[in-house]
């Protein structure tokens, strides 16, 4: 089975950048799937943020405009989220997840990120 | 963006009941609708994809139906382990969007 595990700093100051890592085991991120970041805000609303595909292409939620970047390290079987100019509105639990077709079938355990000075 | 509206936002039912959750899309999404279950303190888990297809390992008391803009998730013979929040998600067009969730409680 595919397993995903997020990691990140836990706390970021406003206006800084957040960087999260998703480590994948059980499947090569170059073999297939689309590798996504999804976040869940306090109050439980879910927002799809974007993905990097098995071939390295990206697709981002326009709501995040030019703040988001998703990259990967194929040698480590990891992919990354970078979100610039964070505000308190970016406080959320961040999940990495696989997209198969048009549904999310494997999810990581999530990492909580707080934006606060 | 396609807006996904779920109702009710919360629901209380008794063990053994059959319950239905509704998800309405702001435009036609054909059958590209998935349902997820998120138990308290846990991660979302895929229940149903393509409106009516049960994901591997999901009990048969869960079922989904609908097409176009209206969809339902039905849970028959409610069990204690069904306490969760349920979300719909459209896969018709980017950006993928989720419903606001339905919190299911047992009476």
Describe the protein's architecture and organization.
The complex is a heterodimer of chains A (117) and B (107). With 117 residues, chain A is mostly beta strands. Chain A is built from no helices and eleven strands. In chain A, the strands form two sheets. In chain A, strands 2, 4, 5, 6, 9, 10 and 11 form a seven-stranded mixed β-sheet that branches. The mean pLDDT of chain A is 97. Chain B is mostly beta strands. Helices cover 0% and strands 51% of the residues of chain B. Chain B contains no helices and eleven strands. In chain B, the strands form two sheets. In chain B, strands 2, 4, 5, 6, 9, 10 and 11 form a seven-stranded mixed β-sheet that branches. Chain B starts with a strand and ends with a strand. The A-B interface holds A 44-48, 59, 61-63, 95, 101-105, 107-110 and B 1, 32, 34, 36, 38, 43-46, 49-50, 55, 85, 87, 89, 91-92, 94-98, 100-101.
In brief, what are we looking at here?
The complex is a heterodimer of chains A (117) and B (107). By secondary structure, chain A is an all-beta fold.
Note the main attributes of this structure.
heterodimer; A: 117 residues; mainly beta; seven-stranded mixed beta sheet; four-stranded antiparallel beta sheet; 55% strand; globular; B: 107 residues
Number of strands of chain A: 11
Number of helices of chain B: 0
Poorly predicted sequence stretches spanning 5 or more consecutive residues of chain A:
none
Distance between the termini of chain B: 36 Å
- Could you say which structural class the secondary elements and strand pairing of chain A correspond to? mainly beta
Question: Could you report the average pLDDT of chain B, rounded to the nearest whole number?
Answer: 97
In helices, the fraction of residues of chain A equals: under 10%
Write down the secondary-structure element order of chain B: EEEEEEEEEEE
Main sheet summary of chain A: 7 strands, mixed
Any idea what the radius of gyration of chain A is? Answer: 13 Å
Strand content of chain B: over 45%
Percent helix of chain B, as a range, is under 10%
Question: What's the multimeric state?
Answer: heterodimer
